[in-house]
Amino acid sequence: MNKLGYYLSFISRLAILCNISFLLSLMVIFNPFFHTPEFLASFFGALGLQLAPFINFVFIVLYLILKAQGKIVNVPTWQIVNNLIAFLLEILCFIFII
After folding, report:
1. Separation of alpha carbons 66 and 72, rounded Å
2. Has this prediction a pTM greater than 0.85?
3. Cα dihedral sign, 63-69-73-78
4. Could you tell me if 63 and 75 are in contact, meaning their C-beta atoms sit under 8 angstroms apart?
5. Can you tell me whether residue 13 is helix, strand or coil?
6. DSSP letter string over 29-92?
7. What digits encode the pLDDT tens for the residues 9-55?
8. In this structure, what is the dihedral angle of CA atoms 68, 86, 81, 70, given to the nearest 10 degrees?
9. Which DSSP symbol is given to 2?
């Protein structure tokens, strides 16, 4: 596997963690009964609301570049689908909700 493929595998795992943080930050924002300490809410807000869309965008661009070059992508299909759906959800949330 080439060097870009290793980066794609790492970014895919990082994107999944950021997507989980995005969902947690939405729970903190929209659920008044979900009490968390302020430092945790700030951490999940920064990781989920700011970093998750960027990391997902980088993942999708790298994936499309590797597919266009005809190289083998060593990322499980469920991670690709999960990151794509999460990216679309994040974009929709930023346009219509937040």
Report:
1. 7
2. yes
3. positive
4. yes
5. helix
6. HH-TT----HHHHHHHHIIIIIIHHHHHHHHHHHHHHHHHHT----S-HHHHHHHHHHHHHHHH
7. 999 999 999 999 999 888 888 887 877 788 888 888 888 889 999 99
8. 10
9. -
